[in-house]
Amino acid sequence: MKIDKTTSMRDALFGTLYERALEDKDIVIVTADMGAPSLDKFRENIPERFFNVGIAEHDMIAIASGLASEGKKVYTFAIAPFITSRCFEFTKLNAGLMGFPIKLVGVGAGFSYDDSGPTHHTTEDISIMRAIPNLEIYSLSDSVSAAKITEMTIDSQIPAYLRLDRKVLPILYPEDEKFESGFKEYKSGKKVGIVTTGNMVHNALEISSKFGEDVGVIDVYKIKPINPEIANTLRQYKKIVTLEEHLLEGGLGSIVSELITDNNIPVSLKRIGLKDFIYAYGGRENIQKVCGIDTDSVTREISKLI
User: Fold this and answer.
1) Three-state secondary-structure class, residue 148
2) Fold exhibited by the domain 183-305
3) Collapsing DSSP states into helix, strand and coil, what is residue 14?
4) Based on C-alpha coordinates, what's the Rg of the chain?
5) Regarding the domain delimited by 9-164, which CATH topology (the fold level of the hierarchy) does it fall under?
6) Which end of the chain is more exposed for a tag (fewer CB within 10 A), N or C?
């Protein structure tokens, strides 16, 4: 599909899926009381492959698993906290242990739903979902990556969680990007490498621009399994900073810490993220400031390192 600066990750994903669904009659959508213009095409033109189960996310996973057991390529869709924590047991058993290759699409990573409060914040989903065996996790930073990685997952026999931001973010990648490695050193640096994911890639690029060639940015868009080749990229730096709009326990910083330890990489590591759950309002930028993960706060931390 054609993607421009007004295309959200959600619409890029479902637009891509719809175009394939017109040719592939095994593609099915199961949603939990979620609507979108891009989903209206499914509802109107291929209603026999579009199911809305209402506010019953765990039933959505059960229905999707049954369809997948019959060979259907099933994508489920809900707000990120509800498709992860609310459905955890069903996903663990049906996708993780039984291996049904369902795809979980969660919109609203981090503080995307800043106006809806803590019930809709998604700051622990990576920690939760990486504990499920055999499940891939993608954390996307723009609409091009959302469309391309959707194409990659359609025929995959591995279950996956696709983590989307609610906001329309600036496009980072060209349409011919392959997205095969699971990460990209978006900008190289001489001293400090910021390893980040999702919407925070944009923050990291803004921060790195203040330091010229000293600070690089690495976008990890496939969280699990993380490509071990990223270790070679980390070795090029003296210091690594992980930046995430997510709890530190079990998040990207934990993953990178494990990678550094397991591969004996001689770098120092500074993890920047949420130290605990937060109850705050006032917009996403204000919430980030309260948590110390806004661009100004992170810039100060990196200045200390340099």
Assistant:
1) helix
2) Rossmann fold (3.40.50)
3) helix
4) 19
5) Rossmann fold (3.40.50)
6) C
